[in-house]
What we know:
By secondary structure, the protein is of the alpha/beta class. The protein contains three helices and seven strands, in the order βααββββαββ. The protein has helices at 13-23, 32-40, 93-98, and strands at residues 10-12, 42-44, 59-64, 70-76, 87-89, 106-110, 116-126. The longest helix is centred in the N-terminal third of the chain and has 11 residues, at 13-23. The chain is globular and about 35 Å long.
Amino acid sequence: MSVSPLPARVLSELDHIRIANLLKQPGMDFAADLAVLLDTAELLSPRALPSDLVTMNSRVRIADHQAGNERELTLCYPHDTNPDTGFVSVLSPVGTSLLGLREGALAHWSMPSGAHASARILKVLYQPEDHGEFLR
């Protein structure tokens, strides 16, 4: 998997702590790109986040950059993953690529087959921090 280094990522301090703790668990060697993202992201207080930023538990509408089809996804922790309902793990290539980007940004990732994919973030439909939910 490869996470695009641009644009810069912004994370909430709380998301950063929770994801860092997740990556300390055994068997997380495959999440090297997510670890790099954590090391290089700008950190903000949850109350200071812009409302169009993809944070954990955010629901977003994206458009496949090549096909142009749209879909809605919720960025979640691994235990909440359910691809059938659009819940994608932050540990997945798509999830890692979306974390910390803003509306209008283009997310890039590599699929397990090695093919490259991308999608534009059209809208952050729901962000917990924007609704005063700072502990989710």
